[in-house]
């Protein structure tokens, strides 16, 4: 009997969910499954902005992968993927090479700025747990240095956020709440600290309703966040960031540029011969790569077109989780030579937190929610994910139940 080797790359939202679905769907004699991830833990990217400002301990976002998977069915390899060789159906890792019959790529995203030579000093992406820890340490170090220096260097406590999309807004809200605490810890007056969002569009949260945008801006402005709209960051140097607006170049002294603008798929895909657009693969509606019926690409590495709008589904955790469900069922169908399903994502709620006790949300029925209601919604969504991934045990261990104070 045909017993394929399924290799899943990445244990983020899409990869780990694919693995847990497959362990339920397939019997041991139907397939060999290998899951590869850089670390022995899964982390919840949706909480990273809290880790990056220091309001949430990294351990809270980490879930040991061995606690989630059935190791009788899944061979878990802790290693770094270095190359995808889809022509020879092989994957190179730092320490070994794997052959596959079916490949699932769920390697997540990378910050665009990293590859731009003008934008690689003082740029801090929030792409993974280690990035988030580096940013938190950098912030605290600069507060401490500022408090200690005789000639004050404002660049140490000016924090520029590149991008006013969901991640930038969530980070700004969390940071605005954290600054008073940091200030009292390091003897820095709140009024001296600047948090500046630089956005290239004329609005933050592009695509959202005006009421939603106005609420978010007012909430952040009331806590001292500044907005510079229609401006593009073009350069970052050791002590400053430069943006262009209406044809003029303007400098802000800043040692911290938090990069939340411009995200691309994992660069390993660009290095393969699979065609990519901004590092992402335009997959078919069954989530396979055109021309490679044995390769599924999911989550932030994939561009999945919504047939109703003709535009890609948003790159977020919801899409990543939903794509994992379809990929797992399609892999089973492929093994059993049955028809494959098409990916359709139902309308999802939109939620952005604006700090520990404020937020904006649009629920499935289109109703808008502001303030603590939105923060509760976000926590309920996160808890639902934990329940889906690891059942009640994981929910009780890692769930967020501090609904009224955080
Ligand atoms: C700060 C922040 C807040 C967010 N908030 C929300 C939110 O509220 N709601 C929402 O829906 N979405 C949110 N998102 C977006 C969401 O987190 C992503 O869309 C989602 O994580 C994508 O899932 P994924 O499976 O594609 O990748 P990821 O979850 O990023 O997983 C990728 C995995 O691959 C591993 N990996 C990467 N490279 C290698 C390699 N070379 N070798 C081995 N392993 C590797 C990583 O360690 C990781 O485990 C947020 C993102 C950020 C950054």
TrEMBL record:
<dbReference type="GO" id="GO:0003955">
    <property type="term" value="F:NAD(P)H dehydrogenase (quinone) activity"/>
</dbReference>
<keyword id="KW-0560">Oxidoreductase</keyword>
<dbReference type="InterPro" id="IPR051169">
    <property type="entry name" value="NADH-Q_oxidoreductase"/>
</dbReference>
<comment type="similarity">
    <text>Belongs to the NADH dehydrogenase family.</text>
</comment>
<dbReference type="InterPro" id="IPR023753">
    <property type="entry name" value="FAD/NAD-binding_dom"/>
</dbReference>
<keyword id="KW-0285">Flavoprotein</keyword>
<dbReference type="InterPro" id="IPR036188">
    <property type="entry name" value="FAD/NAD-bd_sf"/>
</dbReference>
<protein>
    <submittedName>
        <fullName>NADH dehydrogenase-like protein YumB</fullName>
    </submittedName>
</protein>
<dbReference type="GO" id="GO:0019646">
    <property type="term" value="P:aerobic electron transport chain"/>
</dbReference>
<keyword id="KW-0274">FAD</keyword>
<feature type="domain" description="FAD/NAD(P)-binding">
    <location>
        <begin position="5"/>
        <end position="323"/>
    </location>
</feature>
<dbReference type="Pfam" id="PF07992">
    <property type="entry name" value="Pyr_redox_2"/>
</dbReference>
